[in-house]
Amino acid sequence: VQLQASGGGLVQAGGSLRLSCAASGFNLDYFSIGWFRQAPGKEREGVSCIRRRGDQVYADSVKGRFTISRDYANDTVYLQMNSLKPEDTAVYYCARSRSSSYYLTCSASNFGSWGQGTLVTVSS
Fold first, then answer.
1. Which residues pair with 5 in a beta bridge?
2. What is the DSSP letter of 98?
3. Cβ–Cβ contacts within 10 Å for residue 80, how many?
4. DSSP three-state, residue 29
5. Listed residue (122, 90, 120) closest to 8, CA to CA
6. Percent of the chain with pLDDT over 70
7. Residues 53, 66: contact at Cβ < 8 Å?
8. CA 124, CA 20: separation in Å to the nearest integer?
9. In the predicted model, is pLDDT for residue 96 greater than 90?
10. 43: Cβ contacts below 8 Å, ≥ 6 apart
């Protein structure tokens, strides 16, 4: 099982980035994928996840600005981030759910197989 996050970078406040999570070694159809982030000096927090049936969950802090999507043909999950704010600065990680439940709670404890992270820096 491998997850490779990419797409991070430096962007000005109000700008956009699209993160990619390339999955390999398992069938994306059977698992949920989550995006999490960790800012310097802060604990890791959930950003968004997409469950097996495609239903999406977002943290309140990113609702209306971020969109998660899944491309089965390319085994990739995307996180489109618009209207970025300085407080979105963090290392962003993608992870695969531990189970194949359709009703997975999108908390970090339910996810394993973490990717290496990609740094997003939003300047004010």
1. 21
2. S
3. 14
4. helix
5. 120
6. 100
7. no
8. 24
9. yes
10. none
Structure-block tokens of residue 79: 């996180």
Please determine, for residue 115, whether its predicted confidence score (pLDDT) is greater than 90.
no
- 55 DSSP 8-state letter: -
- Region 93-110: mean pLDDT is 93
**Is pLDDT of 89 > 90?**
yes
Judge residue 124's burial from the number of C-beta atoms within 10 Å of its C-beta, 0-12 exposed, 13-18 middle, 19 or more buried: exposed
Q: For residues 34 and 66, what is the distance between their CA atoms, to the nearest angstrom?
A: 13
b/e 17-50 (16+ beta carbons within 10 angstroms → b): bebbbbbeeeebeebbbbbbbeeeeeeeebbbbb
Cβ neighbour number for residue 86 with a 10 Å cutoff: 11
Structure tokens of 113? 């197989």
Average pLDDT score over residue span 43-59: 96
Q: For the chain, how many residues are written? A: 124
